Amino acid sequence: MPETSLSIRLLGEPVLRKKASPVKQINSLQRDTLSKMAQLMYAAQGIGLAAPQVGINEAMIVADIGSGLYKLINPKIVKKEGSQVMEEGCLSLPGIWIKVKRAKKVIVRAQDEFAKTLTLEAEGLLACVFQHEIDHLKGRLMVDYASFFQRLKIRKKLAELKTRPIDEELPESKTKSCKLQL
Q: pTM for this structure?
């Protein structure tokens, strides 16, 4: 299941479109995987990462917008309020940014790495990150929200990502031009 060294999977890899399986029993394997995911997220200058993005078909995410690390298992959005539009990027779609409309405020129920049930209220950027990462657990990507015109603008980059050789070096992240790299 989890590899010793995790790597970010890119658009076109089937694991990104599969619905993640719920974690039935939380143990040291999940704790270790979440820690490795967090290390990879920080190394890639991201603010969120879901297990499918590293090839693991389990419902786990990590997120940190600068106010502390969240390690969540089996997260579910139980309430949404309002709306906001933010430009989002994705570690699995390097070089692509699109404006996505999401709820402004969410309540998320999940388990932490020690199986304790949590209820988190998030607003603004953190709400956006939670929604983006939980979408990954459903096999949904930010490009699924793109308008017809957004799709036209990014279609060449999407095609390049899908045909990129797996061992090809990725372009350096352009996180300075986009505050969300999820």
A: 0.87
